Amino acid sequence: MNKQPSSVGPSGGTASASGGGLDSVASILARLEQGMTNISTELGTIKIELQSVKTENQNISTSIDLFRKEVKESVDSLKCNLRKANKQIVSLQKELTEAKIQLLNLQSSFNYTQQIVHYDGLRILNVNYNSDEDLLNIVKQIADFIDFNLDLSSIKSVYRLKTNTKLHYPPIILKFVNLQLKNKFFQLYKAKKGTLCLDSLGKSSTIRIFEEMSPSNYFLYKKARELKLNKVIKYVWFSRGRVLVRKEDNSPAAVIKSIADLANIKGEREMVEVYSDDGDDTDVSSLTSRISTDSKKRRRDQKHFTSQRGSLDNFLKPRSQALELQK
Length: 327
What we know:
This protein is α+β, with helices and mostly antiparallel strands.
């Protein structure tokens, strides 16, 4: 009789193994459940933080919108104020331009009055100085030489300037009672210009005579001379209390009343420099002697000269303190 194998042992072992596997699965499931719980908690925390960030973003966006609104209002206000300021600037510029024109007119009027009233004489150069000289007699000799019928009562004043420089021949200022006599005397002198030498007045020297210039006319004359040296104009001269210029041989003569007239000739809107009466020690010995109104003489090349017996410094400069002999 064959014996069948017993199943008690093996069956018991299988049941034990199955029980251990279930415990492992349960442990894994428990850990998974705990992990899911932790993840859920973390997600909840993240959700809360995201909501907080969203709220902050909304607040920031609101603040930015308010800031943009304030900036826009400020910019609009600035634009409005800028437009008003521009209108005021335009108005002020117009007033300034009008004020400049009025100032130039006043300066021109003052210059003309100053020239006619205070600087209406003739300046005589190269007459030797003597402490006991008789200026009226000197003028009489010059008048006789140029064929001018001199009446001493027609002389308003005659005096020799006191200068700051040591000139051998301090200028003599001669004034007549009216401009007609002065102009006639000067015209007769120009007819014999370059030949007026009087040995009786000392060593032989060529006497030169010029019209007096006011300080402002002297300033304008110097500026016009600068334009001539820069070849902006061709001729510049002084006649009968006025500074005149001519750009070309055939162009009309222009009267220079202010610095603005020179600016117009130069093609500029305005010139910065203005006349100020603060004294001027400029060396004018190189200035031209050709300030005649004779058109033929102006067309010739102007000759520069220097006195053989001392420079002609200050021959066009405004007079300083003077010893005046009133007639």
